[in-house]
């Protein structure tokens, strides 16, 4: 099975409309556009299945369709822990204080959706969903999204939306990923499971405190009976992971801050056991991921020098710190990480090395850098797909040519294709020419049939190049 570039992979599961369990099963909703991390949906699905954030992963081509389906699930939900996890790949527009958060659903070409309006339609205007509740059992919406902190500018304390439920934003005002906030979701899931086992209502402030002590990025709580948004700003050093230091990064109204502090003091023994210690390796790796994303060189160097073995440890969704540096297109930090002992050929949870990440970049500078520093070009991932196939499949022709020049195997077969046959089917003349120039083996797939395939597809230029190769090396005809 051929994988595509990780920046364009989609995972979709449709809800079972005939499953009676939907009436009492919690929900996980994943709304996304083209720019997603496939590991994040796997992680969220796994976390959802372990807790009362379960169970449906939905993709829709319109906001209206999503509201209808989510509303039916949400309105029928009868359990005490009425929690919905919404994972959105979004963005914000506007200046500070006047920002709005937006997202595109699926591959839709329709207008971009305003997240606040989507939430209003879900909680206030959808006939399948209860209207504003005056009880303590208000819906609790977990929003995981890039730049979702903008919602703190939009959802005001005086508005019906604020009063309709609780909203926890696993996000800052910048790009956020599960590598930066996944530990918070793990703790949230554990807390909801604990509440379920004791048959008690989850307390929003306790949940926020527990999740906050496990954060790698900003965490914000809105709604309910809060006076203002409550934000726990991102930790920036291992010292900030200490609970006493971490809570000092809390911003909000004095009464609300006091309630959070009290929630931390009044944790039960079982609730306190859910808190990770400040020297937990997973928590430190999450901190490293957040600082890498922010390109905080000072913090990165401090973390790595005191925890050097963590440089090759997979992050929460299975990716590697080195790959994150590559995705940031930062050659100086990449070289520094390699000098600190980062393994250039280390593989992530899917068997991908940093080379796979470099292929997705707009230029080939870091790809060449990695190859020159002995990155292995023939390193199939867990789906037995090599970097060369990824490059050709995603029309990264310059990357493909560079890989070939550095020894990528042009006779490797994946899903019945060789690099040559795949390049022909993709209409990539330059890659076809590059393969033929570097070929010394007849197992590339060159044949008269391939010439005819190119000609049938209207690519006479490719057909001529293939024909010339056959004429110059007649033994390949056999």
Structure in words:
- This protein has two domains: 6-272, Rossmann fold; 336-477, Serine Threonine Protein Phosphatase 5, Tetratricopeptide repeat.
- Helix content is 43%, strand content 9%.
- The chain has 22 helices and ten strands.
- A seven-stranded mixed sheet has the order 1-2-6-7-8-9-10, sandwiched between helices. The chain has a three-stranded antiparallel sheet with strand order 3-4-5.
The CATH topology of the largest domain: Rossmann fold
What is the helical fraction, as a range of percent?
40-55%
User: Taking strands numbered 1, 2, ... along the chain, how are they ordered across the largest sheet?
Assistant: 1-2-6-7-8-9-10
Shape: elongated
Q: Which structural category fits the helices and strands?
A: alpha/beta
How much beta, percentage-wise? 5-15%
- Look at the structure and give the mean pLDDT: 83
Radius of gyration: 25 Å
What's the story with the biggest beta sheet? 7 strands, mixed
Give short descriptive properties of this protein:
478 residues, Rossmann fold, Serine Threonine Protein Phosphatase 5, Tetratricopeptide repeat, seven-stranded mixed beta sheet, disordered N terminus
Write the layout of secondary structure elements.
Elements: E1 27-31, H1 38-49, H2 63-76, E2 83-88, E3 90-93, E4 100-103, E5 113-114, H3 115-125, E6 140-145, H4 151-154, H5 160-164, E7 166-170, H6 178-198, H7 204-212, E8 219-223, E9 230-232, H8 243-247, E10 250-251, H9 254-265, H10 269-272, H11 281-293, H12 297-306, H13 321-327, H14 331-339, H15 354-359, H16 365-372, H17 387-393, H18 397-405, H19 419-425, H20 429-437, H21 448-456, H22 460-472
